[in-house]
Backbone:
């Protein structure tokens, strides 16, 4: 009998304990949500709401030919599938991103390794490597427009010194995209270098000391210590780099307007053209959804797959 | 969520109103600092004529201190019409200005007045953003007012019997040529090429090479951004303009146009023009640097070339094709928007009317390099003196006789884009003139089909 009471008591006791636990959890949750609220409001207003609105609009036909938008289901997507310019733009964007990102990251790492050594004068070098980042893209585009100008631009003068034929970089279908990529690398590499520098400085010096005691070559140290320990930085930089590169668009407006014949047109500029030159809002929304999906896929690959293979700390 | 957006927009508008109130306050304060009797007087005047403030969006597309010139203009207008204040708002390039005006229209807060490309007519009309000016014209100026402008400039302003805009900052394409290079090549510096044959021949002669390197090209015709505009000149010279006046049809794949495009391509094939696409913005620099002996460019660059070229240069009509001389017009017009107060529309109209007076138009032309919009402006004393000292300025005016509307259709952005793409594909050697023009025509037909219903 006594045993039973004791059991009941303990059950009651257990119950109250659980109750206080959940209410406590609730409390922390409420507090968390309250803290989160200000940013949530802005996220809802300026990110989620526009995203939903864009997806919604992408099912409508809304352009200059019709006074009131009407629902067309997936017709915009169907039309996009048959749009030759769209596929050209996608191809350009793919090459632009997947050459600019790795090359500028490798360059950034090389520059960081070079600058990281305690040698006199590296302060100047750091500045020199970093300064393209500081210049606004519009200014960069104007500078490079003249670098690429045939006849007297810097590129043509360099070619001339080595006895090569002059190239109309921005006016030829085959060279315009590579020319843009070179410029983007120049602009971006310095920015990523800074992240790598920070990453390098956080690696413990002891590791290198013990490696050198063990007689490891510098190449071996780089491969077995530096690079693996820089992996979190690399992941971070690669996300930033991909997003940054997809966002690079200002230069097109200044340098080529996407020409010749869309050879330098990129997805974001095409969206701009569709929305604000063609005033085809339905199609612009559809294109935006495509870009969103691409960015989402990139983020998912990076966070869920690449992230798992990285050893933190 | 829509409510939240709406209320936040209202909030922003409210803030703007508050700010606007703040800026107008100091004026009242200075007024009250004068003696009381005067204040009373001015109050009575205010009662008679409510002070009106109108905003005007304007773009800048050429070099020079345009902002100052426009603000001076607004001041001058205010002095003559004390109850109206025109507030000019610089809104970037033509493209930016269009985007801003459209966004403002969609937000139900349209500008009272805007200077936009004359070719935006159909786009603005399809968006139901602008009002026809027929009533204003009927009551104030009539046909006489409309006829005072060069007809080439009015073409883009009218459709289906209504007038929607008034010419303001207008241009055409002219041929600039380096007289010293002409002499060097054994050509008469006072006889620029007058037809296509001469253009080809002179360009070849003017081209200078060292080894396998060209140190000076004969001619440069820019083809980045909006090659359709330059092509239009060839098309007009060889046949007819590229579109119908209702903006529902384009005529791209004609035999004459194929010839015209072939000529453009031949200049590059002859090596007397750089191959590939030639950049619009760097072409004047090339000319000033002596890297090209001739160039096709807007009259808007006249002042720039005049101030920077270290050699004697001439300006001439574009060489004639099978049909004669010809050039498209370009530049911006005044538009009035739907949904603004009647009083403000009236005030904006007053400003438009004021700005198209011969004296004002002449001053604007001299200060900027744009072509003055009416023949009367060229009869003013100021303009006569200017043209006498700088005869090159008269060439664009004289060419206006052969000038026609710039390409403008319904769905203009997309139609000109497919055309531009095809022109560039030809110039970069990816397709032939016949194929390109046929493809451009097909795509343009598709784009225009919905407007024909």
Residues:
């Amino acid at each position: 009998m006594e045993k039973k009471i004791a059991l009941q008591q303990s059950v009651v006791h257990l119950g109250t304990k659980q109750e206080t636990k959940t209410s406590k959890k609730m409390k922390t949750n409420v507090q968390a949500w309250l803290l989160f609220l200000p940013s949530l409001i802005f996220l809802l207003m300026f990110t989620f709401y526009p995203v939903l609105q864009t997806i919604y609009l992408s099912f409508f036909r809304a352009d200059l030919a019709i006074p009131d938008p009407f629902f067309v289901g997936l017709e915009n997507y169907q039309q996009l599938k048959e749009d030759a310019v769209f596929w050209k733009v996608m191809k350009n964007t793919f090459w632009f991103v997947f050459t600019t990102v790795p090359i500028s990251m490798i360059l950034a790492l090389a520059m960081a390794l070079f600058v990281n050594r305690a040698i006199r004068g590296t302060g100047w070098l750091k500045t020199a490597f970093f300064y393209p980042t500081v210049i606004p893209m519009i200014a960069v585009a104007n500078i490079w427009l003249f670098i690429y100008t045939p006849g007297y631009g810097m590129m043509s003068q360099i070619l001339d010194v080595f006895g090569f034929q002059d190239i109309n970089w921005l006016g030829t279908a085959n060279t315009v995209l590579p020319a843009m990529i070179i410029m983007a690398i120049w602009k971006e590499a310095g920015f990523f270098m800074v992240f790598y520098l920070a990453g390098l400085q956080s690696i413990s010096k002891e590791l290198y000391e013990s490696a050198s005691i063990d007689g490891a070559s510098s190449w071996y140290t780089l491969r077995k210590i530096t690079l693996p320990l820089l992996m979190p930085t690399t992941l971070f930089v690669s996300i930033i780099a991909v997003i940054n590169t997809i966002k690079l668009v200002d230069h097109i407006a200044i340098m080529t307007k996407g020409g010749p014949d869309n050879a330098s047109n990129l997805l974001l500029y095409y969206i701009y053209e569709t929305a604000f030159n063609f005033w085809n809002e339905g199609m612009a929304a559809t294109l935006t959804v495509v870009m969103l999906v691409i960015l989402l896929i990139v983020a998912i690959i990076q966070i869920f797959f690449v992230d798992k293979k990285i050893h933190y700390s | 969520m829509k409510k939240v957006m709406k209320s936040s927009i209202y909030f922003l508008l409210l803030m703007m109103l508050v700010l606007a109130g703040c800026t107008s306050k100091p004026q009242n304060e200075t007024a009250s600092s004068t003696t009381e009797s005067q204040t009373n007087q001015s109050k009575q005047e205010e009662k008679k004529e409510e002070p009106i403030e109108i905003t005007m969006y304007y773009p800048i597309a050429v070099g020079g201190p345009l902002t100052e010139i426009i603000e001076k203009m607004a001041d001058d207008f205010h002095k003559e019409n004390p109850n109206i204040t025109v507030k000019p708002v610089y809104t970037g390039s033509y493209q930016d200005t269009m985007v801003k005006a459209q966004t403002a229209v969609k937000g139900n807060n349209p500008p009272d007045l805007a200077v936009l490309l004359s070719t935006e007519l159909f786009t603005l009309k399809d968006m139901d953003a602008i009002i026809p000016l027929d009533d204003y014209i009927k009551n104030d100026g009539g046909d006489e007012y409309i006829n005072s402008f060069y007809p080439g400039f009015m073409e883009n302003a009218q459709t289906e019997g209504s007038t929607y805009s008034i010419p303001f900052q207008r241009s055409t394409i002219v041929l600039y040529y380096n007289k010293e290079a002409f002499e060097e090549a054994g050509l008469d510096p006072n006889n620029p090429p007058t037809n296509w044959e001469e253009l080809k021949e002179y360009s070849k002669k003017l081209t200078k090479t060292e080894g396998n390197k060209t140190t000076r090209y004969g001619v440069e015709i820019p083809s980045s951004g909006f090659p359709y505009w330059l092509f239009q000149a060839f098309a007009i010279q060889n046949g007819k303009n590229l579109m119908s006046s209702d903006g529902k049809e384009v005529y791209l794949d004609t035999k004459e146009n194929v010839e015209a495009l072939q000529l453009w391509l031949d200049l590059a094939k002859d090596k007397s023009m750089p191959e590939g696409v030639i950049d619009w913005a760097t072409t004047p620099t090339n000319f000033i640097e002596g890297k090209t002996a001739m160039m096709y460019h807007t009259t808007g660059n006249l002042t720039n070339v005049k101030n920077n070229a270290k050699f004697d240069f001439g300006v001439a009509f574009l060489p004639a094709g099978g049909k004669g001389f010809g050039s498209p017009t370009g530049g911006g017009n005044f538009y009035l928007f739907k949904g603004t107060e009647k009083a403000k529309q009236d005030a904006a109209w007053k400003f438009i009317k004021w700005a198209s007076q011969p004296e004002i138009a002449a001053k604007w032309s001299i200060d900027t390099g744009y072509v003055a919009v009416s023949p009367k402006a060229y009869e003013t004393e100021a303009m006569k003196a200017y043209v006498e000292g700088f005869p090159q300025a008269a060439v664009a005016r004289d060419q206006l006789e052969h000038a026609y509307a710039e390409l403008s259709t319904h769905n203009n952005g997309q139609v000109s884009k497919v055309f531009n793409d095809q022109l560039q594909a030809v110039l970069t050697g990816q397709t032939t003139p016949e194929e390109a023009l046929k493809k451009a025509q097909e795509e343009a037909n598709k784009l225009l089909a919905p407007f024909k219903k």
Notes: Chain B has two domains: 52-171+330-404, 172-328+408-452.
